[in-house]
Amino acid sequence: MFAAMAAPVNNPDHGFCRDCLTFQRSETRRCERCGSPRLARHPELYRLHLAHIDCDAFYAAIEKRDNPALKDRPVIVGGGKRGVVSTACYIARIHGVRSAMPMFKALEACPEAVVIPPDMEKYVRVGREVRALMQALTPLVEPLSIDEAFLDLSGTERLHGMPPAVVLARFALTVEKELGITVSAGLSYCKFLAKVASDFRKPRGLSVIGEAEALGFLAEQPVTLIWGVGKAFAASLERDGIRTVGQLQHMERGDLMRRYGVMGDRLYHLSRGEDDRRVHPDSDAKSVSAETTFDTDISAMAELVPVLRALSEKVSARLKKSGIAGRTVVLKLKTQDFKLRTRNRHLGDPTRLADRIFQTGLDLLRREADGTKYRLLGIGVNDLSDDDKADPPDLVDIQSRKRALAEGAIDTLRGKFGKKAVETGYTFGKGRSTNPPEPIED
């Protein structure tokens, strides 16, 4: 697949070519073999083994791959004019389009953009293909989302016959050739800096942050570089006169913890490049949810209830398919002025039943039906576990057993004749979005 490499010249200052993987014999500006300018060099290049891999504009890249006519067009993947941007390609990003931006603002910034509704089934399929290629490199793969993961490549040099940095470059070429999308990778000595590095030179980037340079590099960065420092917390730090990571490096751990509690401890360690977390393979999902954005804001329960039922059925289907259940039901609402409301209820036993998820969500929804107009509705479960102890018989609510049996019969019919073979009275013949997007496993 790739050109045979000469015996490794393990001089990190000379590096290797990311396009033909040839080790360089001197500090040239272009590859001595193929002429490519994409050379990887770093004093610690061959000593580092902890990587973070992130697919570039994942959803949009898949759509461009599947429709070559979109190659040079700005592409936005999202939920129509009323939805938000899921992913924007790099051409659209040049115009100022960003993920999670309201679609109307994205189209104001880039009116010539092609908007494509998300196809989660396709994205999940490609995500699994990328994951399989990762797991061929090392068993230590910790997924963070559908398109990114940490990898620990320590001890794999003998297996692959090359240092982890070259293994990452070869992986990126394999993904491009076999799957038709691109990835960026960060390489470092800890998870925090590996993830930071992967964002540096997107798309098709390979960036390295070594241990010797960590303190100096971090000192110049804004505090928002640290995980957990969002807008609100950054504003608190700003009020205390703290704007850069370098300022945190000069503060005592006790002082930071007195001011900011547990987060102060994180600030102390990460500002110094100290992160001893290991890569944990096959991290379990934390929640399963589904949501939909309406074409027009609505407040009437008569219109919200059918959507809630349809979303509950989709979440339930995903739970059953995965053999898991959730103990906490979470209702998500977004008002017309983009303010988010989340309400949750802890159940006595984990559930995977659509009826139980729906009834719990419905009770939470009734409490929010105060005339407020909503642009988004979502339902989900967290506190996940195996489904072997889910939904035990309820000695108080004797009808719950009958509803569970009826739901099982509905599942059987849908599995045989399709999703629309049987509908409940909540959704049958109703308008609005009674066919919302597939559930999202967070």
Automatic annotation (TrEMBL):
Keywords: Cytoplasm, DNA damage, DNA repair, DNA replication, DNA-binding, DNA-directed DNA polymerase, Magnesium, Metal-binding, Mutator protein, Nucleotidyltransferase, Transferase. The record marks 59 as: Substrate discrimination. InterPro entries: DNA/RNA_pol_sf (IPR043502), DNA_pol_Y-fam_lit_finger_sf (IPR036775), DNA_pol_Y-fam_little_finger (IPR017961), DNA_polymerase-Y (IPR050116), DNApol_IV (IPR022880), Rev_trsase/Diguanyl_cyclase (IPR043128), UmuC (IPR001126). It catalyses: DNA(n) + a 2'-deoxyribonucleoside 5'-triphosphate = DNA(n+1) + diphosphate. The keyword Nucleotidyltransferase applies. Binds 2 magnesium ions per subunit. Mg(2+) binds at residues 54, 147. Pfam families: IMS, IMS_C. It comes from the Bacteria. It is found in: Cytoplasm. Its EC number is 2.7.7.7. It is an enzyme of class 2 (transferase). GO terms for molecular function: damaged DNA binding; DNA-directed DNA polymerase activity; magnesium ion binding. Belongs to the DNA polymerase type-Y family. Monomer. Poorly processive, error-prone DNA polymerase involved in untargeted mutagenesis. Copies undamaged DNA at stalled replication forks, which arise in vivo from mismatched or misaligned primer ends. These misaligned primers can be extended by PolIV. Exhibits no 3'-5' exonuclease (proofreading) activity. May be involved in translesional synthesis, in conjunction with the beta clamp from PolIII. This is DNA polymerase IV. The lineage of its organism: Bacteria, Pseudomonadati, Pseudomonadota, Alphaproteobacteria, Hyphomicrobiales. The gene is dinB.
